[in-house]
Amino acid sequence: MPRTSSALDRATPEAIAAAALRLIDEEGPGALSFRTLADRLGVSHATVQRRCTDLAGLLDLCTEHLAARLPAVPAGTGWAEATEQRFAALYRLLTAHPGLLILRGGRPWMGRQLLARLVEPQIADSVAAGMTPAEAMTVYRRLYLLTLGSAAFVDHRDPAGATAVTRTALAALDPEEFPALTADIPALLPVLTDHEVYHAALRQLIEAARPAS
Q: Which of 82, 94, 112 shows the shortest CA–CA distance to 210?
């Protein structure tokens, strides 16, 4: 007879993170709890807590699980192209899981996977391209803040819902007090969920920071 897996075998960090992300994506950030997660995994509440201690530890597992999906940029790729590839990939991950962004709030994301797959290669490429370490970190921070803010600004998994909420809010404004926002609401709404707004801004920042050849 094959050995039955123990609770800890079933509740691996990867399994916990994957189940937590599915729960957040399907039911919203408010649904996440150790007890609900334990029920999904078929283990005890204590087993899940043993793996990640508290909510902060659980969210760290989730972000590390996502960061492991960031692609490696092939060696020899030009600085600007490599930079765009890395941050566009991060943007795709973040916009796919808006509930995780809500739960993390302003907590820093400093896990090993993100450092190894994004921060370290980006800083190394920038220094190799001629930037000082301080300049490299400044450029990284600008690009990271753009990416994080763009992903957190609206729920890109539900563009129709985000548009409807914004339309209702703008329609309730007094045109005399807010003439610019109420003059042409239909023209403003598509921009709210247009991914190209982020990608164009990303390319502009990259071009502005491009090291001299």
A: 82
Enter the tokens of residue 11: 């509740």
Three-class secondary structure of residue 32 per DSSP: coil
Q: Is this model's pTM higher than 0.85 or not? A: yes
Give me the amino acid identity at 165.
V
**Closest among 107, 92, 91, 129 to 58, alpha carbons compared:** 107
Cβ count within 10 A of residue 101: 18
Site of tokens 């003439």:
179
What does the alpha-carbon distance between residue 207 and residue 79 come to, in Å, rounded to a whole number? 10
Q: Other CB atoms closer than 10 Å to residue 109's CB: what's the count?
A: 20
Q: pLDDT tens across 131-169, in order?
A: 999 999 999 999 999 999 999 888 777 888 889 999 999
CB 149 within 8 A of CB 95: no
HSE-up of residue 163 (Cα within 13 Å, Cβ side): 15
Integer Cα distance of 34 and 55 in angstroms: 8
* Tokens at 74, concatenated: 């092939």
Q: Crossing angle, helix 79-96 and helix 195-209, to 10 degrees?
A: 150
